[in-house]
Specification:
Elements: E1 3-8, E2 13-18, E3 23-29, E4 34-39, E5 44-50, E6 55-60, E7 65-66, E8 74-75, E9 82-88, E10 93-98, E11 101-102, E12 105-111, E13 116-121, E14 127-128, E15 131-137, E16 142-148, E17 156-162, E18 167-173, E19 178-184, E20 189-195, E21 200-206, E22 211-216, E23 221-227, E24 232-238, E25 243-248, E26 259-265, E27 270-275, E28 285-291, E29 296-302, E30 313-319, E31 324-332, E32 335-341, E33 346-354, E34 357-363, E35 368-376, E36 379-385, E37 390-396
Parallel strand pairs: 1-3, 2-4, 3-5, 4-6, 5-9, 6-10, 9-12, 10-13, 11-14, 12-15, 13-16, 15-17, 16-18, 17-19, 18-20, 19-21, 20-22, 21-23, 22-24, 23-25, 24-26, 25-27, 26-28, 27-29, 28-30, 29-31, 30-32, 31-33, 32-34, 33-35, 34-36, 35-37
Antiparallel strand pairs: 7-8
Protein backbone atom coordinates (compact mmCIF):
# COMPACT_ATOMS: atom_id res chain seq x y z
CA UNK A 1 0.00 0.00 0.00
CA UNK A 2 1.15 3.48 -0.78
CA UNK A 3 0.16 6.51 1.21
CA UNK A 4 0.84 10.02 -0.02
CA UNK A 5 0.30 13.02 2.23
CA UNK A 6 0.82 16.59 1.00
CA UNK A 7 0.50 19.77 3.03
CA UNK A 8 1.89 22.74 1.18
CA UNK A 9 1.20 26.43 0.79
CA UNK A 10 0.71 29.06 -1.86
CA UNK A 11 1.04 28.36 -5.58
CA UNK A 12 1.16 24.59 -5.15
CA UNK A 13 0.55 22.25 -8.07
CA UNK A 14 0.53 18.53 -7.29
CA UNK A 15 -0.12 15.53 -9.53
CA UNK A 16 -0.32 12.13 -7.86
CA UNK A 17 -0.78 8.70 -9.41
CA UNK A 18 -1.22 5.80 -7.01
CA UNK A 19 -1.32 2.07 -7.81
CA UNK A 20 -3.76 -0.57 -6.63
CA UNK A 21 -4.81 -0.84 -2.94
CA UNK A 22 -3.58 2.71 -2.42
CA UNK A 23 -4.48 5.64 -0.19
CA UNK A 24 -3.79 9.26 -1.07
CA UNK A 25 -4.25 12.25 1.25
CA UNK A 26 -3.70 15.81 0.07
CA UNK A 27 -3.89 18.89 2.31
CA UNK A 28 -3.38 22.36 0.87
CA UNK A 29 -3.57 25.75 2.53
CA UNK A 30 -3.07 28.93 0.53
CA UNK A 31 -4.09 30.57 -2.72
CA UNK A 32 -4.16 29.37 -6.31
CA UNK A 33 -3.50 25.69 -5.52
CA UNK A 34 -4.02 22.80 -7.97
CA UNK A 35 -4.18 19.06 -7.18
CA UNK A 36 -4.68 16.08 -9.51
CA UNK A 37 -4.93 12.52 -8.15
CA UNK A 38 -5.38 9.31 -10.16
CA UNK A 39 -5.87 5.92 -8.47
CA UNK A 40 -6.27 2.33 -9.63
CA UNK A 41 -7.46 -0.45 -7.31
CA UNK A 42 -9.13 -0.35 -3.90
CA UNK A 43 -9.07 3.37 -3.46
CA UNK A 44 -9.23 5.89 -0.66
CA UNK A 45 -8.57 9.55 -1.24
CA UNK A 46 -8.98 12.68 0.90
CA UNK A 47 -8.45 16.18 -0.46
CA UNK A 48 -8.73 19.34 1.67
CA UNK A 49 -8.07 22.82 0.31
CA UNK A 50 -8.33 26.08 2.24
CA UNK A 51 -7.76 29.26 0.26
CA UNK A 52 -8.78 31.07 -2.90
CA UNK A 53 -8.74 29.87 -6.47
CA UNK A 54 -8.15 26.20 -5.67
CA UNK A 55 -8.74 23.30 -8.07
CA UNK A 56 -8.88 19.62 -7.03
CA UNK A 57 -9.51 16.57 -9.22
CA UNK A 58 -9.63 12.91 -8.15
CA UNK A 59 -10.04 10.00 -10.60
CA UNK A 60 -10.52 6.40 -9.52
CA UNK A 61 -10.60 3.99 -12.45
CA UNK A 62 -10.07 0.30 -13.19
CA UNK A 63 -8.37 -0.98 -16.29
CA UNK A 64 -10.31 -3.39 -18.51
CA UNK A 65 -9.28 -7.05 -18.49
CA UNK A 66 -10.06 -9.72 -21.09
CA UNK A 67 -12.79 -12.11 -19.94
CA UNK A 68 -13.70 -15.68 -21.00
CA UNK A 69 -17.44 -15.14 -21.41
CA UNK A 70 -18.29 -14.06 -25.00
CA UNK A 71 -21.31 -12.15 -23.69
CA UNK A 72 -19.03 -10.19 -21.36
CA UNK A 73 -15.71 -9.84 -23.18
CA UNK A 74 -14.34 -7.40 -20.63
CA UNK A 75 -14.30 -7.75 -16.87
CA UNK A 76 -13.56 -5.39 -14.04
CA UNK A 77 -11.75 -6.42 -10.91
CA UNK A 78 -13.45 -5.88 -7.52
CA UNK A 79 -13.25 -2.23 -6.55
CA UNK A 80 -14.29 -0.07 -3.63
CA UNK A 81 -13.49 3.61 -3.64
CA UNK A 82 -13.96 6.51 -1.25
CA UNK A 83 -13.44 10.09 -2.32
CA UNK A 84 -13.73 12.95 0.15
CA UNK A 85 -13.12 16.51 -1.01
CA UNK A 86 -13.43 19.66 1.11
CA UNK A 87 -12.80 23.22 -0.02
CA UNK A 88 -13.02 26.42 2.01
CA UNK A 89 -12.62 29.74 0.24
CA UNK A 90 -13.59 31.48 -2.99
CA UNK A 91 -13.41 30.49 -6.65
CA UNK A 92 -12.90 26.79 -5.89
CA UNK A 93 -13.66 23.92 -8.26
CA UNK A 94 -13.63 20.20 -7.51
CA UNK A 95 -14.21 17.13 -9.68
CA UNK A 96 -14.42 13.43 -8.77
CA UNK A 97 -14.85 10.36 -10.97
CA UNK A 98 -15.27 6.69 -10.07
CA UNK A 99 -15.24 3.97 -12.68
CA UNK A 100 -17.15 0.67 -12.65
CA UNK A 101 -17.24 -0.90 -9.21
CA UNK A 102 -19.32 -1.64 -6.17
CA UNK A 103 -19.94 0.14 -2.89
CA UNK A 104 -18.23 3.36 -3.97
CA UNK A 105 -18.74 6.73 -2.32
CA UNK A 106 -18.10 10.37 -3.22
CA UNK A 107 -18.44 13.12 -0.63
CA UNK A 108 -17.88 16.74 -1.68
CA UNK A 109 -18.21 19.80 0.58
CA UNK A 110 -17.62 23.41 -0.46
CA UNK A 111 -17.97 26.52 1.70
CA UNK A 112 -17.43 29.85 0.00
CA UNK A 113 -18.46 31.78 -3.10
CA UNK A 114 -18.56 30.82 -6.77
CA UNK A 115 -17.72 27.17 -6.18
CA UNK A 116 -18.19 24.30 -8.63
CA UNK A 117 -18.57 20.61 -7.75
CA UNK A 118 -19.02 17.66 -10.11
CA UNK A 119 -19.13 13.89 -9.55
CA UNK A 120 -19.59 10.95 -11.91
CA UNK A 121 -19.86 7.25 -11.15
CA UNK A 122 -19.89 4.21 -13.46
CA UNK A 123 -20.18 6.09 -16.71
CA UNK A 124 -19.33 2.96 -18.74
CA UNK A 125 -21.12 -0.07 -17.30
CA UNK A 126 -21.93 -2.01 -14.15
CA UNK A 127 -22.03 -0.76 -10.59
CA UNK A 128 -24.26 -0.75 -7.54
CA UNK A 129 -24.49 0.80 -4.09
CA UNK A 130 -22.96 4.00 -5.39
CA UNK A 131 -23.37 7.07 -3.17
CA UNK A 132 -22.69 10.67 -4.01
CA UNK A 133 -23.13 13.47 -1.47
CA UNK A 134 -22.64 17.16 -2.37
CA UNK A 135 -23.01 20.09 0.04
CA UNK A 136 -22.41 23.73 -0.85
CA UNK A 137 -22.76 26.81 1.35
CA UNK A 138 -22.32 30.21 -0.29
CA UNK A 139 -23.35 32.14 -3.38
CA UNK A 140 -23.28 31.32 -7.09
CA UNK A 141 -22.53 27.63 -6.54
CA UNK A 142 -23.11 24.87 -9.10
CA UNK A 143 -23.24 21.13 -8.38
CA UNK A 144 -23.87 18.20 -10.72
CA UNK A 145 -23.85 14.43 -10.17
CA UNK A 146 -24.34 11.52 -12.59
CA UNK A 147 -24.64 7.78 -11.99
CA UNK A 148 -24.96 5.17 -14.70
CA UNK A 149 -25.10 1.57 -13.56
CA UNK A 150 -26.76 -0.39 -16.32
CA UNK A 151 -29.09 -2.89 -14.65
CA UNK A 152 -27.54 -2.76 -11.18
CA UNK A 153 -29.61 -1.10 -8.42
CA UNK A 154 -29.41 0.87 -5.19
CA UNK A 155 -27.58 4.06 -6.04
CA UNK A 156 -28.10 7.31 -4.15
CA UNK A 157 -27.49 11.00 -4.90
CA UNK A 158 -28.12 13.74 -2.35
CA UNK A 159 -27.36 17.40 -3.04
CA UNK A 160 -27.72 20.29 -0.58
CA UNK A 161 -27.14 23.95 -1.31
CA UNK A 162 -27.48 26.86 1.12
CA UNK A 163 -27.14 30.33 -0.37
CA UNK A 164 -28.14 32.35 -3.40
CA UNK A 165 -28.01 31.69 -7.15
CA UNK A 166 -27.32 27.96 -6.77
CA UNK A 167 -27.86 25.32 -9.46
CA UNK A 168 -27.98 21.55 -8.87
CA UNK A 169 -28.34 18.85 -11.54
CA UNK A 170 -28.48 15.08 -10.96
CA UNK A 171 -28.99 12.15 -13.35
CA UNK A 172 -29.30 8.40 -12.85
CA UNK A 173 -29.75 5.34 -15.02
CA UNK A 174 -30.81 2.05 -13.49
CA UNK A 175 -33.30 0.67 -10.98
CA UNK A 176 -34.21 1.36 -7.35
CA UNK A 177 -32.24 4.60 -7.26
CA UNK A 178 -32.85 7.78 -5.24
CA UNK A 179 -32.14 11.45 -5.95
CA UNK A 180 -32.74 14.01 -3.20
CA UNK A 181 -32.05 17.72 -3.74
CA UNK A 182 -32.45 20.44 -1.11
CA UNK A 183 -31.96 24.14 -1.79
CA UNK A 184 -32.41 27.06 0.62
CA UNK A 185 -32.06 30.59 -0.76
CA UNK A 186 -33.11 32.69 -3.73
CA UNK A 187 -32.97 32.12 -7.50
CA UNK A 188 -32.14 28.42 -7.18
CA UNK A 189 -32.58 25.86 -9.97
CA UNK A 190 -32.75 22.08 -9.55
CA UNK A 191 -33.12 19.41 -12.23
CA UNK A 192 -33.42 15.63 -11.79
CA UNK A 193 -33.37 13.06 -14.58
CA UNK A 194 -33.89 9.35 -13.91
CA UNK A 195 -34.36 6.44 -16.32
CA UNK A 196 -35.32 2.98 -15.14
CA UNK A 197 -37.86 1.56 -12.70
CA UNK A 198 -38.65 1.84 -8.99
CA UNK A 199 -36.98 5.22 -8.72
CA UNK A 200 -37.59 8.08 -6.29
CA UNK A 201 -36.87 11.73 -7.04
CA UNK A 202 -37.33 14.47 -4.46
CA UNK A 203 -36.67 18.22 -4.68
CA UNK A 204 -37.26 20.66 -1.82
CA UNK A 205 -36.70 24.39 -2.22
CA UNK A 206 -37.15 27.15 0.37
CA UNK A 207 -36.83 30.66 -1.05
CA UNK A 208 -37.94 32.91 -3.89
CA UNK A 209 -37.94 32.47 -7.66
CA UNK A 210 -36.98 28.80 -7.57
CA UNK A 211 -37.37 26.33 -10.44
CA UNK A 212 -37.44 22.51 -10.32
CA UNK A 213 -37.69 19.92 -13.10
CA UNK A 214 -37.89 16.11 -12.91
CA UNK A 215 -38.12 13.42 -15.61
CA UNK A 216 -38.79 9.72 -14.90
CA UNK A 217 -39.82 6.41 -16.48
CA UNK A 218 -41.68 3.34 -15.08
CA UNK A 219 -42.83 2.57 -11.49
CA UNK A 220 -41.40 5.81 -10.16
CA UNK A 221 -42.26 8.43 -7.54
CA UNK A 222 -41.48 12.14 -7.93
CA UNK A 223 -42.19 14.95 -5.47
CA UNK A 224 -41.32 18.66 -5.50
CA UNK A 225 -41.86 20.98 -2.54
CA UNK A 226 -41.49 24.73 -2.75
CA UNK A 227 -42.17 27.39 -0.15
CA UNK A 228 -41.81 30.97 -1.40
CA UNK A 229 -42.68 33.24 -4.31
CA UNK A 230 -42.59 32.83 -8.08
CA UNK A 231 -41.68 29.13 -8.03
CA UNK A 232 -41.98 26.78 -11.02
CA UNK A 233 -42.46 23.00 -11.08
CA UNK A 234 -42.11 20.84 -14.20
CA UNK A 235 -42.50 17.07 -13.85
CA UNK A 236 -42.74 14.45 -16.58
CA UNK A 237 -43.25 10.71 -16.33
CA UNK A 238 -43.46 8.29 -19.24
CA UNK A 239 -44.84 4.77 -19.33
CA UNK A 240 -46.78 3.25 -16.40
CA UNK A 241 -47.52 3.08 -12.66
CA UNK A 242 -46.00 6.41 -11.64
CA UNK A 243 -46.82 8.99 -8.97
CA UNK A 244 -46.35 12.75 -9.25
CA UNK A 245 -46.67 15.13 -6.28
CA UNK A 246 -46.14 18.90 -6.35
CA UNK A 247 -46.53 21.16 -3.31
CA UNK A 248 -46.24 24.93 -3.33
CA UNK A 249 -46.83 26.92 -0.18
CA UNK A 250 -47.21 26.23 3.54
CA UNK A 251 -44.91 26.46 6.54
CA UNK A 252 -46.38 28.92 6.46
CA UNK A 253 -48.27 29.78 3.26
CA UNK A 254 -46.60 32.05 0.61
CA UNK A 255 -46.22 30.67 -2.96
CA UNK A 256 -47.67 33.62 -4.91
CA UNK A 257 -47.22 33.59 -8.68
CA UNK A 258 -46.27 29.91 -8.79
CA UNK A 259 -46.70 27.43 -11.67
CA UNK A 260 -47.14 23.66 -11.67
CA UNK A 261 -47.02 21.53 -14.81
CA UNK A 262 -47.25 17.74 -14.63
CA UNK A 263 -47.42 15.34 -17.58
CA UNK A 264 -47.90 11.58 -17.46
CA UNK A 265 -48.00 9.16 -20.38
CA UNK A 266 -48.98 5.56 -19.78
CA UNK A 267 -51.22 3.45 -17.57
CA UNK A 268 -52.12 3.54 -13.86
CA UNK A 269 -50.55 6.93 -13.15
CA UNK A 270 -51.44 9.37 -10.38
CA UNK A 271 -50.80 13.13 -10.17
CA UNK A 272 -51.37 15.54 -7.28
CA UNK A 273 -50.80 19.30 -7.18
CA UNK A 274 -51.35 21.67 -4.25
CA UNK A 275 -50.78 25.41 -4.00
CA UNK A 276 -51.02 27.82 -1.04
CA UNK A 277 -52.39 25.30 1.40
CA UNK A 278 -54.69 26.77 4.08
CA UNK A 279 -54.22 30.47 3.27
CA UNK A 280 -52.74 33.19 1.07
CA UNK A 281 -52.49 32.88 -2.69
CA UNK A 282 -51.70 34.73 -5.87
CA UNK A 283 -51.38 34.27 -9.63
CA UNK A 284 -51.04 30.49 -9.42
CA UNK A 285 -51.51 28.01 -12.26
CA UNK A 286 -51.84 24.22 -12.24
CA UNK A 287 -51.58 22.33 -15.52
CA UNK A 288 -51.94 18.54 -15.45
CA UNK A 289 -52.12 16.23 -18.45
CA UNK A 290 -52.50 12.46 -18.41
CA UNK A 291 -52.44 10.14 -21.42
CA UNK A 292 -53.46 6.55 -20.81
CA UNK A 293 -55.78 4.33 -18.75
CA UNK A 294 -56.85 4.28 -15.10
CA UNK A 295 -55.29 7.65 -14.25
CA UNK A 296 -56.02 9.85 -11.27
CA UNK A 297 -55.49 13.61 -10.97
CA UNK A 298 -55.97 15.88 -7.94
CA UNK A 299 -55.50 19.65 -7.74
CA UNK A 300 -55.95 22.05 -4.82
CA UNK A 301 -55.51 25.83 -4.71
CA UNK A 302 -55.94 28.00 -1.63
CA UNK A 303 -56.51 31.73 -2.12
CA UNK A 304 -57.72 34.65 -0.04
CA UNK A 305 -61.49 34.70 0.09
CA UNK A 306 -62.88 38.13 -0.79
CA UNK A 307 -59.58 39.48 -2.11
CA UNK A 308 -59.34 39.89 -5.89
CA UNK A 309 -55.64 38.95 -5.96
CA UNK A 310 -56.29 35.24 -5.81
CA UNK A 311 -56.37 34.70 -9.57
CA UNK A 312 -55.76 30.96 -9.54
CA UNK A 313 -56.26 28.74 -12.60
CA UNK A 314 -56.45 24.99 -13.15
CA UNK A 315 -56.17 23.23 -16.49
CA UNK A 316 -56.50 19.46 -16.39
CA UNK A 317 -56.69 17.04 -19.30
CA UNK A 318 -57.14 13.30 -19.35
CA UNK A 319 -57.15 11.22 -22.53
CA UNK A 320 -57.88 7.56 -21.93
CA UNK A 321 -60.22 5.24 -19.97
CA UNK A 322 -61.23 5.03 -16.31
CA UNK A 323 -59.89 8.48 -15.34
CA UNK A 324 -60.74 10.57 -12.27
CA UNK A 325 -60.27 14.27 -11.55
CA UNK A 326 -60.76 15.98 -8.22
CA UNK A 327 -60.15 19.73 -7.96
CA UNK A 328 -60.71 22.30 -5.24
CA UNK A 329 -60.26 26.08 -5.25
CA UNK A 330 -60.71 28.38 -2.28
CA UNK A 331 -60.26 32.05 -3.07
CA UNK A 332 -61.37 34.66 -5.60
CA UNK A 333 -61.45 34.98 -9.40
CA UNK A 334 -60.55 31.30 -9.85
CA UNK A 335 -60.76 29.30 -13.10
CA UNK A 336 -61.10 25.54 -13.54
CA UNK A 337 -60.91 24.01 -17.04
CA UNK A 338 -61.31 20.23 -17.25
CA UNK A 339 -61.21 18.06 -20.38
CA UNK A 340 -61.73 14.30 -20.43
CA UNK A 341 -61.69 12.17 -23.58
CA UNK A 342 -62.39 8.51 -22.96
CA UNK A 343 -64.68 6.17 -20.99
CA UNK A 344 -65.66 5.87 -17.34
CA UNK A 345 -64.44 9.36 -16.38
CA UNK A 346 -65.43 11.17 -13.16
CA UNK A 347 -65.06 14.85 -12.23
CA UNK A 348 -65.52 16.48 -8.82
CA UNK A 349 -64.88 20.24 -8.89
CA UNK A 350 -65.35 22.46 -5.83
CA UNK A 351 -64.96 26.25 -5.71
CA UNK A 352 -65.44 28.47 -2.67
CA UNK A 353 -65.15 32.23 -3.06
CA UNK A 354 -66.26 34.91 -5.53
CA UNK A 355 -66.15 35.23 -9.30
CA UNK A 356 -65.25 31.58 -9.97
CA UNK A 357 -65.65 29.82 -13.33
CA UNK A 358 -65.79 26.09 -14.10
CA UNK A 359 -65.79 24.42 -17.54
CA UNK A 360 -66.06 20.64 -17.82
CA UNK A 361 -66.01 18.87 -21.17
CA UNK A 362 -66.43 15.12 -21.38
CA UNK A 363 -66.65 13.04 -24.54
CA UNK A 364 -67.49 9.35 -24.82
CA UNK A 365 -69.57 7.16 -22.48
CA UNK A 366 -70.34 6.66 -18.77
CA UNK A 367 -68.96 10.06 -17.61
CA UNK A 368 -70.02 11.84 -14.40
CA UNK A 369 -69.56 15.53 -13.53
CA UNK A 370 -70.14 17.11 -10.12
CA UNK A 371 -69.65 20.87 -9.74
CA UNK A 372 -70.01 22.60 -6.38
CA UNK A 373 -69.74 26.39 -6.14
CA UNK A 374 -70.28 28.49 -3.03
CA UNK A 375 -69.93 32.25 -3.44
CA UNK A 376 -70.98 35.08 -5.76
CA UNK A 377 -70.96 35.48 -9.54
CA UNK A 378 -69.98 31.86 -10.20
CA UNK A 379 -70.40 30.16 -13.58
CA UNK A 380 -70.54 26.43 -14.30
CA UNK A 381 -70.61 24.85 -17.78
CA UNK A 382 -70.69 21.11 -18.35
CA UNK A 383 -70.54 19.62 -21.86
CA UNK A 384 -71.03 15.90 -22.34
CA UNK A 385 -71.03 13.97 -25.61
CA UNK A 386 -71.93 10.31 -25.30
CA UNK A 387 -74.21 7.93 -23.35
CA UNK A 388 -75.02 7.36 -19.66
CA UNK A 389 -73.55 10.71 -18.53
CA UNK A 390 -74.59 12.49 -15.31
CA UNK A 391 -74.18 16.15 -14.35
CA UNK A 392 -74.77 17.63 -10.86
CA UNK A 393 -74.33 21.38 -10.33
CA UNK A 394 -74.82 23.02 -6.94
CA UNK A 395 -74.37 26.78 -6.66
CA UNK A 396 -74.76 28.80 -3.47
CA UNK A 397 -74.58 32.60 -3.57
CA UNK A 398 -76.04 35.53 -5.49
CA UNK A 399 -75.40 37.29 -8.76
Amino acid sequence: MKKVVFSLGTLLSAAIMVAQSSTANLDQSGDLNIANITQEGRFTSTTVQVGTGNNAEVIQELELAQGNDPDFPYIYGPATGTITQTQKGDYNSVFAHQGPGFDSKIDQVQRGNKNFASSSQNTIDHGSYQRSMQLQEGNNNYATSSQWDGNDPFNYVRQKQFGDYNNATASQKGEENIISITQTGSFNTASSSQSGAFITGSITQFGNSNSAHQIQGDFNYAVIRQWGDNNTVLQEQSRSVNDLVALQGSSSFNSSGSFISQIQEGHSNSASAEQNILSEGGENIINQRQLGFDNNAKATQEGIVGVLEGNNAMIQQQIGDGNEISSSQNGAENLSDILQEGNLNTVLNTQTGTGNYTLVKQTNQLNTSTILQNGTNNTAIALQNGMNNTVIINQGGSL
